[in-house]
Amino acid sequence: MKQSRIAPWIGVIFGAIYFLVPLIATFEFSLRMERGRYSFEAYRIVLGDPNFQASFGYSAFIAVCTIIVGVALVVPTAYVVQLKLPKLRPVIEFLTLLPLVIPAIVIVFGYLRMYNSSSWLPLTGSARGTDVLLTFSYVTLALPYMYRSVDTGLRAIDVRTLTEAAQSLGSSWPRILLTVILPNVRVAVLSGSFLTFAIVIGEFTMASLLNRPAFGPYLQLIGANRAYEPAALAIIAFAITWACMGLINLFGAMGQQTQRR
Amino acid sequence: MAFLSIEKLVKTFGTQTTVKGVDLAVERGEFVTLLGPSGCGKTTILRMVAGFETATSGTIRIDGKDVTDLKPNQRNIGMVFQAYALFPNMSVADNIAFGLKVAKKSSAEIAARVKEMLELIKLPQLGERYPYQLSGGQQQRVALARALAVKPQILLLDEPLSALDAKIRISLRDEIRAVQRSLGITTIFVTHDQEEALSMSDRICVMNEGHIEQLGTPFEVYNYPTTRFVASFVGTLNIVNGKVADSATGKLLVDGQEIVTSRSLNGASTGDALSLALRPEALTMGRANGLSNNLDGTIDEVHFLGSVVRIRVKFKDSAISLDTFNKPHLPPPERGQPVTVNFGREDILVLDGAPN
Amino acid sequence: MTNSSITDTNFSTAAVRPRPISWSWLGVVPFLLFTLMFLLLPAANLIIGAFQDAAGNFTLQNIANLSQPTILRAYQMSIGISAASAFLGAVIGFALALAAVLGRLPRWVRPSLMTFSGVASQFAGVPLAFAFLATLGRTGLVTALLFNIFGINIYRYGFNLLSFSGLTLTYLYFQIPLMVLILTPALDGLKREWREASAILGASTWQYWRMIALPILWPSLLGAFMLLFANSFGAIATAYALTGSSLNIITILLYAQIRGDVLHDPNLGYALALGMILITGISNGIYIWLSSRTGRWIR
Ligand SMILES: Nc1ncnc2c1ncn2[C@@H]1O[C@H](COP(=O)(O)OP(=O)(O)O)[C@@H](O)[C@H]1O
Ligand SMILES: [Mg+2]
After folding, report:
1. What pTM, to 2 d.p., does this model score?
2. More confident: C3 or A115
3. Considering only residues 81 to 120 of chain C, which have any Cβ-Cβ distance to chain A shorter than 8 Å?
4. What's the burial of B333, exposed, middle or buried (CB within 10 Å: 0-12/13-18/19+)?
5. Which residue of C has its CA nearest to B51?
6. What residue ranges of chain B are covered by domains with CATH 2.40.50.140?
7. Would you state the CATH architecture of domain B4-232?
8. How far from chain centre, in Å, is Cα B88?
């Protein structure tokens, strides 16, 4: 049953090269701004750009809003489906997977048609309204990941016993959700949140079509007009994604430890 | 020469030696059980016989042929795993047919053999079902049929009953044994359940920490355990500490009371401390005359187990359990009652090694 | 889940409130409303729009207009890139997952691969385009290295990052890791006993894969392929940042249409969107059909 160990190694090494070389190349490129020597000039310029700060701040804010709305929407649903309405599970799961099938650009196009300034709900008529719409569009984007994460977390704990215990102590439903269930799926919610953040922070299509001053359109603008700054931005974006995933792993490991204890 | 012969078999994982020089000879058509606590290396031996693990040293011969270094698919062995080993993407019939298909048998031959096998395991109607539609017991019967369909030389069963619930476990036990007898197939059965081993086997090979403690018929292993480990692992056993009062006549002292054994003292001399073992079913309540031994004590606990009542009797320092049959018109004795326990001189097993 | 009926009665007796069922509906109604308003209706709205003219009357003209050569070529290009990147991503990702799960590699390889795949699968959009420009663009590091060391100018040999092959290569950066993430658990689900049972019954490794492992993995493989396909079919940011609007793929065409840059015919835009929904819808239909045919044994 021993199999040769050459082929797996070749595969893994090929994979490593494919994924590391662009990163290395990008990093090297980002250092080349000043002629004849490596420097962090491109990073200095990018980080000092007020537009960078503004657009990044805006996207981070929208990401936080997305996470709050997403959690508020997904946790009660997943909880109720698991506990009381298991028959709805296929429907809910189908709905949460739809955003993987319907392209984002189609969804936002639908928003523009449905919620334009002359419609019954003119969300795009004002900047605030558009922010709300952008947040909601991100909630749909993140829905598959958020739902899966929370649902997996709920399956890992004994929702029923926890609920019954809380009920026997006279807790009401909203209280149970907030004080008993939520803390127990904290790790799952945090994972979903960081994933959401990673997806939302650099998102281009929706922000651009809704005309909001987000980080994604800013990136695109810099890319079209500058040479070295985009490479620095790519490295920064990669670092953000990596940080989000690292935090997910970290919290995941911590969660496992607390469970073991 | 034995049909399956294992000689000086050793298996080392890294720094840990799991199988420490095992010799085992199984005759054609024999049903031998490897019995031992979890982790003692039973599965590892079976997997070396099957060819899933390579032996560190030693040889395995089947029908005189050295198979130690053959691949599993060249050995013509049937194996039943602990659980869930049916191919989930195939119907019951396709599972049973798998080995025949791989061997490129004609479809007529396959169909006939599958039918025969389904009848052998008494599931003739279920050929079209998928594994997930079967109960655990049915799945294991199909696994047995799948293993037997290719007419293997040897059948290996690795705790095939452990995942099932008690009732099915016992009925399937008999069924496996019946099928094995009717086909006369040489079989190695692995279990950690001594009751299973005692009820099914021609011979039992009691294992501990990678070596064989004792090899013998169920009768021998149960009644004449040769090591302390076997005595305590097989069956329920009372172990009491005693002292040799007179090595010549077999006189012993237990908690100041004198008893006599007719068995060998394993070389202990007068004054030595000893461990003695007594099976619960060898003990009777009440005083007996003649050549029996009597011990006086008080009843400590009474467990009503249904057909059997298990009673714990306390002496000065030690305690023993004994079984009596339940009798509806005779309520069991009460705690604190004084009682005398009697047993025959031959019922005392003298364990080797000093008491601990 | 099995004893839900029993516990449901427990709930109604234990709950203090008179109609406990309303509470559970309250948990899902906001969710259903949200998906209706911000997922289903917008899509439905476009579909309806595709069959209307500017005045709101029923027409098939928009659909007919899709047969313009530019639009047909854009669909073709999008399907081609998506299929190629999904197929290559699936094959390579499958191989990598295989190596990680069954390759008897050192212990640290697998968690590293998984973490990295998690990051790379989400590393899409505009920054990915920057990274590939810096790598394989005309002044990219790898382009330069290949030229300086081997004297090969890949652009001379017809390579172009702003093309079918270039975009496919770029998309693979997130497609392969996505496949690894999806397939690793599926490969973990292959029980060691299945392989051993097949071996002891006389099957070769190849027979094990053909008759047991691949059929068991088939629905996962197919589902992953479809997900990868949809993933790159709907992608726009990378392509847009890489090529501007010079590459004629359907998402860029639709993007330009929405921005009002090109066609000035919103209803044609709806028809474009309908075409996209149809393509992802049909491909998922095929997936469901195929996996229901092959997956009868799945609970
Ligand atoms: N592939 C392996 N690698 C390392 N150790 C192993 C391996 N297989 C078994 N062992 C070790 O060998 C010992 C005996 O295992 P096993 O033969 O399965 O015992 P049993 O079947 O009697 O319960 C165990 O301690 C187990 O940890
Ligand atoms: Mg075992």
Report:
1. 0.83
2. A115
3. 92, 95-96, 98-100, 102-105, 109, 113, 115-116, 118-120
4. middle
5. C200
6. 236-351
7. 3-Layer(aba) Sandwich (3.40)
8. 31
